[in-house]
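Two quick folds needed for the group meeting slides. Do the first one here.
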Amino acid sequence: MHRDFETMKMLAFHRELVASRRLAHSQGLTLSIALEQILTATAGQSGLLNLLQERRQHFAKLAEIKLKKKRQAEDKYAIKLACNKIPDSVWCGWFDGSARPNPGSCSIGALLQSPDGQRWEISRSIGYGNSSYAEYHALIALLELALKQQLNSMIVFGDSRVVIDDLQSGSQKYAQGLSELRQQANELMSQIPDLQLKWIPRARNQHADRLALQATQQTVI
């Protein structure tokens, strides 16, 4: 009695399946017989039963590794979603600045949102400078707006690595030419007891970006 074809097919490697099809075609055999002959030849002295058992263990291990990687990916994605989720129980702010060209005409955009969903927007031109100058001014404008609301905690989001790294650099080297703006921003942030400054990719800062662009377009008009 020949081995179960579906079981052998499941445990065979691709090259063995190809070889069995060729053997079946050349010898006029059924695929089941041809595959059994190929696997028997592969098994050699250890025997077909031992080969099939080894293959079961091999594919079971691969499935376990695949499942582990899938779970790790799911956990990583869940953590990413949790990190990306904007909390609805705290004040949040977003800022963005642009210079067109760079350096050139600068505009800023900012959005402040309260826990109950109220929103305040900033969109204005600020003269000539580079992109970091504009980003800093956008953050400062947002902080000034936030302080008017007399809030005690806030999460601030921005897509400027230069500004956020500059403010979070501690004793490390600061960005050149931004010392006065950095000092002004630090003074404002110190007035909010619980403030978190977080970098986000530009794709997640679209509202502030649109507000800055809006100011640029109005200036051109």
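Then this one, please, same format:
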Amino acid sequence: MGKTARERTLPDNEAKAVTRNIRVSPQKLNLVAQLIRGKKVATALNDLQFSRKRIAVDVKKCLESAIANAENNHDLDVDDLIVAQAHVGKAMVMKRWSPRGRGRSGKILKPFSHLTIVVRQVEAKAA
């Protein structure tokens, strides 16, 4: 007597992973997401492994989750996967105040982000 399963929004050759509320601004996260868009997953993992950005660790974790979803839930071949989308969205913003000179206060914004990674299986080209 449970609910009926929701229809799948992605095609059969795609899988995705979502990481919510990452403590970094969307602009900084998008720089790292831009690094992996359209690449094969093995290349993208290597790029994230050796990236000097702090947030690359969280992006790599999300990409590995998308790969695991593709392999375990959707029976896709890991060697034929590419990063189809790496979408960054805004989340909440914590507002803080800092005392400034002459009795004033300065606003400090601490933004959070959402990251969605979609991997797609493409057929290997016969060489």
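Slide caption for protein two: The mean pLDDT is 95.
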